[in-house]
Design a protein that fits this description.
Layout lengths: L2 H11 L4 H8 L3 H8 L8 H11 L3 H7 L5 H10 L2 H11 L4 H15 L8
Helix pairs in contact: 2-3
Length: about 120
């Protein structure tokens, strides 16, 4: 499912017109139409978070579908632990296999259910 498909699905589930949702988010309805029809790349993370709020959906899921990483969140994570930057660079260069990536995501999911430091 694409980012645009997900936005359309969520909007229809909330029984909102494109005009209504666009107005609530502060974008032009023609732009929203282009997003839903995958005619333009996904919007900024700020707009995605507004869409998420209005559609009562998981902002992280929408950001993932949009292939967005908030620069502010990334900087904060790297400042807290420089290894995050190393991990990010490895992910960008595709030095990790699909299996390694799957395992890492699994570890993160398990760690997220409690205290992440408990996993290490």
């Amino acid at each position: 499912m694409t980012f645009g498909d997900k936005i359309r699905e969520l909007r229809k589930r909330k029984r909102l017109s494109q005009r209504d949702l666009a107005e609530r988010v502060g974008i032009d309805f023609t732009y929203l139409s282009k997003i839903e029809n995958n005619k333009v790349p996904p919007p900024s993370d700020t707009v995605i978070r507004k869409l998420s709020r209005e559609l009562e959906s998981d902002s992280e899921e929408l950001l993932m579908l949009a292939a967005k990483v908030s620069q502010q969140d990334l900087r904060k994570a790297v400042a807290q632990d420089p290894r995050v930057g190393i991990l990010f660079r490895k992910l960008q260069s595709r030095e990790l296999t699909d299996e390694q990536l799957r395992q890492m995501l699994e570890i993160i999911e398990v760690g997220g259910k409690g205290n992440a430091t408990d996993t290490y």
